[in-house]
Amino acid sequence: MEQIKDYITTHKDRFISELVELLKIPSISADTAFSQDVLETAKIVEKSLKDAGCDKTEICETKGYPVVYGEKIIDPNLPTILVYGHYDVQPPDPMELWTSPPFEPVIKKTDLHPEGAIFARGACDDKGQMYMHVKAIEFMIKNDVLPCNVKLMIEGEEEVGSDSLADFLTEHKEKLANDIILISDTGMIANDVPSITTGLRGLSYVEVEVTGPNRDLHSGIYGGAVPNPINVLNKMIASLHDENNHITIPGFYDKVEEVSDAERKEMAKAPFNLDDYKKALDIGDVQGEKGFTTSERYSIRPTLDVNGIWGGYTGEGAKTVIASKAYAKISMRLVPDQDPDEITQLFTEHFKAIAPKSVKVKVTPHHGGLPYVTNMDSLGYKAAAKAYETTFGKTPVPERTGGSIPIVALFEQVLESKTILMGFGLDSDAIHSPNEHFGVWNYLKGIETIPYFYKYYSELAK
Ligand code: BES
Ligand code: MN
Ligand code: MN
């Protein structure tokens, strides 16, 4: 595997320019106006798997956007690694906050990326991180050092909840059979603090609608005498946390796994600087559940957050009006052993129960997903740790992250395999935000590290 360094030196310009081409296509799965672009991206990804040396590639239809599949089977008796990634991206808005257009990638230097970072929607999440695998596999196949079998499934609906994937997994269980799943769709602590993600939070996402009067009203003629759905909705939302920032939904915490003091102590060893954290986000103070540290609040504790709220008049100037309806989108991040369907149910019952008689309330569930944790004793974790030790010269820190990749729990249920999450992005890479970027160093380091995972995993699995 040692040739990987030279291979990167020789081919790095091409590795970057290929990723840049991929980033130019706006594969926004949430917006149907871009459906042709999403489909076009699937084709380019398929071609890249062919070019990397996969024996078989395929664009697999689903109810939604297709899954791109590729494989290189060298010997059925050897272990098989299944790589998962996604080629769809988040919508880029708000557009005006981008310093360069989201689908015209450019390389710019930043404080944390002195060697430059590629700025584009999807640069880190997940086109850049997915493409590291394609290039790592290209290296292993072209240099005849692939030590095991590899399969890849790259989906196009991750950012909208992977709706078609449960069926896809069940239907293609045989085809996707593997010993371990490898994903780069998370982050690491810092370029000099490599980490392996050992946990992901689950998700329950709902939309609520509060209806007051049957039409918009003059806020002078009727104001003060009728329910204002926007006022009511805000009060209801405010009541969902108590003064200690505990969530007030009855039963919400019933299944939350209490992490032992010993484990909390172990987790607290991961480097975290509160001042830097506040400074990076330009916030006067942090906020969260009493009794837990900031890192615990975003990893081992569940949350409830309003992601969007609207209603009434928001145009220029002032319009005096009491709206008929108010809306909000609310996400709840879940931890083991909370169940998304159960939490959605508890939320719905509670939200209806706290609504005053003066309004009508509707709750619509969106996507959800189960949380995931993995332990450090597995072959996969050990192989990943050795890979980082080889290329970073440091033992990676295990870290539970706050984000969600719902498919990971499904992999465990349907394919009965564990997942190793080797992320190379930084939290500051602005995924889902304007000016998303991915360090060129991180991109190349990922390509360098991945082949060692193959090597050590194949050795350990013997
Ligand atoms: N790659 C992210 C998840 C992620 C990012 C996990 C960073 C850990 C660290 C993924 O694409 C994502 O955005 N997931 C969504 C959930 C999905 C159902 C839309 C999320 O976490 O909001
Ligand atoms: Mn992602
Ligand atoms: Mn994402």
Automatic annotation (TrEMBL):
Residues 199-357 form the Peptidase M20 dimerisation domain. This is Dipeptidase. One of its GO terms (biological process) is proteolysis. It comes from Flagellimonas aquimarina. Keywords: Hydrolase, Metal-binding, Protease. The keyword Ribosomal protein does not apply. Pfam families: M20_dimer, Peptidase_M20. Gene3D superfamilies: 3.30.70.360, Zn peptidases (3.40.630.10). InterPro entries: Cyt/Met_Dipeptidase, Peptidase_M20, Peptidase_M20_dimer. PANTHER family: BETA-ALA-HIS DIPEPTIDASE, SUCCINYL-DIAMINOPIMELATE DESUCCINYLASE. One of its GO terms (molecular function) is metal ion binding.
